[in-house]
Predict the structure.
Amino acid sequence: MKLSKIIESLEKWAPPIYQEHYDNSGLMVGDKESSINGCLISLDCTEKVVEEAINKNCNLIVSHHPIIFSGINSVDTSHWTGRVIIKAIQNNINIYAIHTNLDNIKDGVNNKISSILNLKNIKFLKAKEGFSKKLEIYIPEENKEKFLEKIYDIGVGHIGKYKECSFQHKGKGTFIPQKESNPSQGSVNKKEEIEEIKLELFFDSKVMHNVLDVINSSHPYDEPNYFITDSLIKSRDVGSGMIGDRKIKFNELLEELKLKFESKSIKYTKILNQDVNKIAVCGGSGSFLVNDAIKKGADVFITSDFKYHDFFEANDKIVLVDIGHYESEQFTKDLIFEFLNKNLINIALHLTDENTNPIKYY
């Protein structure tokens, strides 16, 4: 199977447009036209992971964290990233990262954590804005149904649990074809009047290119008139962290975190109440979501990478729990494996045997 097909499948699941502005998800090293015979899945891409890929005859590594993140000035063996990249290239191994775009989708990293913790009624902790678009387009009434069929097929008109949503307004369109125009109706320099429908439809920015393709291929006019504008509607499909219901005693929750996430050291703020009813989670670094967790009424917020002063932001309103970055995201490997195993054939999939956590505990 070609790498391009694997990437296409991954990016349909977690579109690159959903990654954070600072991120660098995507193909780190490789050739999209290469044929893949084996894939190794890991949280990080280290030298040992590359060696494991070589030993397992895998010429693709899919990692959660990008090996190239904030940019590099050189690729040499004085730094571990250079050694990883060089070894991968020397052994014809492709490296692909699926990072914050996987964090931000509904069935991504935080959904996996929520499932492990048996949370119910889960929702985004902070839904994203800026991904909802509105299309306004004018089309002859007789061409409306065929056009709508095409536009609905690519996902336009989906609003929450509803599909094929639109607003339609009848009117009359007028125009005078000019020289070198190619009107579907009328003649050059002769004023025309036609029954038109104004369609208004919402869509997610991930299908923007598809929307433009449908307009160019399915609209009868040689010069379609349309507008695409941003909507302030919060996305139902993209967001940071998750929050859900779970009745449990706080001390029991700590024991469960220690067991399920194999956390060697759990940091937490003052216990406010032993009775926990609502839990917020965020894989990786989640300190930016503390206020959102408080506003959403979470009793506990489980994440990682809190700095000393971050813990003060609990402010006697919530219990902050830091279980460690690797510990919080370790099941992302399983998430990627499950997706690829379900959606790809004729390729050997392997979960890494390497624990890539750089932190040791005494």
